[in-house]
Amino acid sequence: MSEQPQPNSEKQKQKPSVMRLVIFGILLAIGLVWGSVELVRSLSHEESDNAQIAGDIYPVSPRVTGTVLDVWVDSNQMVKAGDTLLTIDQSDYLVKRDMAQAQLLKAQAAVLATKAEIVAAGATQQRLDADLRRSRNLQKQDVISRAELDAATAGATASTARHTAAEDQYQAALAQVKLAEAELKNAELQLSWTTVTAPADGQIAKKNVQPGQFVSPGQQLIAIVGSGELWVVANFKETQLEHMRPGQPVTIRVDAFPGEKLEGHIDSISAGTGAQFALLPPDNASGNFVKVTQRVPVKIVFDEKPELPLAAGMNVIVEVKVK
User: Which residues form the Multidrug resistance protein MdtA-like barrel-sandwich hybrid domain (predicted)?
Assistant: First the structure.
């Protein structure tokens, strides 16, 4: 007997092909939907991963030279504005302060001395002026000679000159007092600068100082990251800025916290590209010009203060809704 074809086996062979077509169709539909969503999203959003969290960074530098005696803070320590960070040897500045105080006392004593000279010169002037008036009356009566009158006149004139000189010396002494007071204030100010304090609330992010180190003005010893507001600086391509305006909403994703999304908005757009503020700006007037797409910094602020432990310099991805 010849074998008859089995219809069930043929149906079983057709089932995998149908299933593959169904799966392929589902995947194709998902791909089309995803592609459509991304296409629509790309038309209404601008994204950049060239973005970092920024904050106020306060460099701490001494204003006087000297040897560091004590450092009162450690790396990553929280500080308040006015907290003492380090102290510099005060010996030289105490001596300068004491010398300035002595100069002030000397100048004040000179003022008292010149004031006494003015009083004495004034009394002498009054006496000689009275003698001159009497001599004139006597000379009119031919009681004294012309020579005696001339002598009285010369004495009165000399006393007037001495009184004027005493007043000038008094003014000069007052000026010396003001100069000594200014020098004393300067000495006290330099003495106060031997105690270096925190300029603002924040966290010690970098410490480059140890006891015994000799420091000079302008030398950065400590960097403090302010504990106030943080923001994001995103560097967008210039071709992405056509529809970008301040106030537009922004979604922020931090690389350190992949599952978290933060909301913010554009605060401002820089008036210059990043290349314009580089150490060596490009010279497009040369003959070797190559057009390169520039990036423009955009400042983005958070709508609410983040609860995440964010740090300045962290990488983020920002997405701006421009339409």
Answer: 60-225
Angle between helices 146-192 and 91-140 (to 10 degrees): 170
Specify whether the CB–CB gap between 56 and 200 falls below 8 A.
Answer: yes
For residues 185 and 183, what is the distance between their CA atoms, to the nearest angstrom? 5
> CA nearest 75: which of 256, 230, 223, 198?
223
At residue 221, the pLDDT reads 95
Tokens encoding 146:
């012309």
Residue 196's φ and ψ, nearest 5 degrees, are -95, 125
The per-residue pLDDT of the chain, averaged, comes to 84
Residue 37's pLDDT is: 61
Encode pLDDT of 49-99 as tens digits. Answer: 999 999 999 999 999 999 999 999 999 999 999 999 999 999 999 999 999
Domains and CATH numbers, the chain: 45-57+226-321 (2.40.30.170), 59-89+195-222 (2.40.50.100), 91-192 (1.10.287.620)
pLDDT for res 14: 55
Q: What share of the chain is helix, strand, coil (3-state, %, to 5)?
A: 45, 25, 30
DSSP designation for 271: S
Distances (CA, A) of 109 to 99, 116, 122: 15, 11, 20
Sheet arrangement for strand 66-71: 195-197, 84-88, 66-71, 214-215
Give φ, ψ of 66 to 5 degrees: 155, 180
> Can you read off the two tokens belonging to residue 246?
């301040």
Measured between its terminal Cα atoms, the distance across the chain in Å is 77
pTM of the model: 0.69
